[in-house]
Amino acid sequence: MPESPLVAEDDPIKLVELIQAGVDVEANASKLFKRFRSKVRSFFLNKHFSPEESDDLTQDVFLRVFKGIDAFRRESRFERWLWEIAGHIYLNEIRRRRTEKRDARELSLDARVETEDGTGSPLNLPSPDASPEDVVIQSERSKNLRAALKGLPDQMRRCCILRYERGLKYKEIADLMKISIETVKAHLHQARKRLIDLLGEDPEKETDS
Amino acid sequence: MTDDADADELDRRLARLFGEGRHREDLPEHPSPEKLSAYQANELPPEEEDAIQEHLVECSLCTELLLDLQRFLEPAEEERPGVADLAAEAEWRKVRKEMGWEGEKRQEAPAADVSRLRRSLRAFQAMAAVLLVGVLGLSVYALRLREEVGTSEALVSSSPLNVLGKRSGPEEDVETLEVSPGDVVVFTLHDLREASGEFRVEIHDTSGKTVWSLSGLRKRDNYLAFKVSSKVLKSGPYVIVAVSGSRSVGEYPVKIVISQ
């Protein structure tokens, strides 16, 4: 049986090399596209773009991939390069939207602050029902917490913020900080104890109020 | 040591406390995606790595980007066939078009596809040969008609008429022919039932009056062909009637538009 000149579909580097060499460009580009389209599209869907917007942005990513394919070096993984291009397209889109909205946006008092990840977070305004004493207490509590955090070792502080402020999972924190899950758990265990000491009182009492 | 349930409760309370102190600001500078992927690949010096970690703590956007990179580097899942395939195909067509790849010839094809391609090619060649013979035949016929008319008038040919027009009613599926004054219109009538021998064709206007007729026609293969000078026609609807013996064997509505 004659050997196929095309490569196995699970070898993106080979596909890229063939495209770079001008061999069966369209067929090999089609394979790359169909193999990674879903991954790129999910990348944008997970960032709260609509399916239609995700399709358009995915198309932009692959156009940039194919137009710049000569820049790809085989020392790197294709997926990494693809992610970098998707990251640029994403950041550019965020900047473009922010620029469009900057001057036109009116913010109501109960609106949500638009964060860069698009999820939003509550405006840090005191409740209209809060008494002046509540506002002062809340502000003081935040200040104390920030000060207490500064007293923690860097790695422990980072784990603490990623866990309690961001709500990330242990594995995600471990991946981001490039430490083991066990180390993350140990940091958080120590941090709980030290924060109680540093804040001067049990945080349980604070939040019960 | 606190047991798991107590630790979970403490976690929730701490999370609420952090929530009260949440303080997000737009960070002016984000590390480039290249820098983030270099961090993930342990390619940065310690001081840069530390700066990235500090940025990650403050920036949910970059945190999410890095977590996405982890997912990107995991093996790709096979797309489910079906709707996903169709969507991917549609998207791929757009990319192809943008890249200007439409119609590009393949330099090489998979061996398994070659025999299929050859079979398709042979079938295509056979079809092309049949079409060529048909076109040549029609051309010769058209030239003969032109010679018979003995003029240099343009020929306008109707597409094959059939009984569908009659069945669908006078206003539907009516063949419309746009002709210039002086054109010769060539009609071909198909679906003439089982009739044979000599035919007579008549063109009736909307009142049923015969405005033109021709006798002594014979079928060419399965159809009747004849020519009419547009000088005998005006713009408007007509019905072409094919008669065999004394009975009608086909009626074909047609609309003539004489352009000025």
3D structure, described in words:
- The complex is a heterodimer of chains A (209) and B (260).
- Chain A has helices at 12-20, 25-45, 51-67, 78-102, 132-150, 154-165, 170-177, 181-199, 203-208, and strands at 112-113, 121-122.
- Chain A has a two-stranded antiparallel ribbon with strand order 1-2.
- The longest helix of chain A is centred in the middle third of the chain and has 25 residues, at 78-102.
- Chain A is mainly α.
- Chain A has two domains: 12-102, Orthogonal Bundle (Rna Polymerase Sigma Factor, Chain: A), CATH 1.10.1740; 126-208, Arc Repressor Mutant, subunit A.
- Chain A contains nine helices and two strands; from the N terminus they run H-H-H-H-E-E-H-H-H-H-H.
- In chain A, helix 1 (12-20) crosses helix 2 and helix 6 (154-165) packs across helix 8.
- With 260 residues, chain B is of the alpha/beta class.
- Among the domains of chain B are: 30-63, no CATH class; 155-258, Macroglobulin (MG2) domain (Immunoglobulin-like), CATH 2.60.40.1930.
- In chain B, 43% of the residues lie in helices and 21% in strands.
- Chain B has helices at residues 4-20, 33-40, 46-58, 60-73, 83-99, 111-149, 164-168; strands spanning 155-157, 175-179, 184-189, 199-204, 210-217, 224-229, 236-244, 247-258.
- In chain B, the strands form two sheets. Chain B has a five-stranded mixed beta sheet.
- In chain B, helix 2 (33-40) crosses helix 4 and helix 3 packs across helix 4 (60-73).
- Mean pLDDT of chain B is 72; it is low at 20-25, 105-115, 149-155 and 162-171.
- The interface between A and B is large, with 82 and 68 residues.
